[in-house]
What does this fold into?
Amino acid sequence: SLSASTPQKPLYDATNYTFPDTTSPDGIAEVLEVSFVHACMQLRTGFVDVLKMFIAAAMSSYQFGFGVDEIQDALLDCPNETANRPLMSEEVELRKTWLALVYLTLLAMDHPTTRKETVEGSIPDEVRKQYGLLVDKAVEMHKKDELCTISVEELVKDESVESSIKDLSDMDRALLMQSLRVATLTLVVVREALEAGPSGGQ
It folds into this structure.
């Protein structure tokens, strides 16, 4: 578990942290690497501000048209080890799923990107299969009331969704619920970026 070997310290100290260039795959990967580790720890406490940072970096990647695999390669080459150890394969896969989920949600929202075919084609089939219906439902609910915050619990209670996940094990269901928070929070991050004005989308 990430919490077992990762120091519980603030993610950023504004006095000494310099944001990398989030217009390049390497810079985006640096933000995703550090924010993923801290977001995993934060989710257990109910806080989501660092997860929002992960989503914002993924959103920047999507807008610039970088494919999921291109960012994944940059992450694997990233020299930083925020967890003070290499991530386990399951953690690397979860991080990739979260990145792809942001892409899937942004596509469902028709969010602009410079290379739509590239980002659309880069989303793994297994992510589409497992989360496509859920993401479409979340975006549909969001369009009806853009100011509402969609809860994951509310989302999976929908009849069309419930039937597709009823056979999952407790562990897989918990993982799905956790990952779905990435999709529902992406809707919030997009709204906040739009409210912040032109500079908010980058």
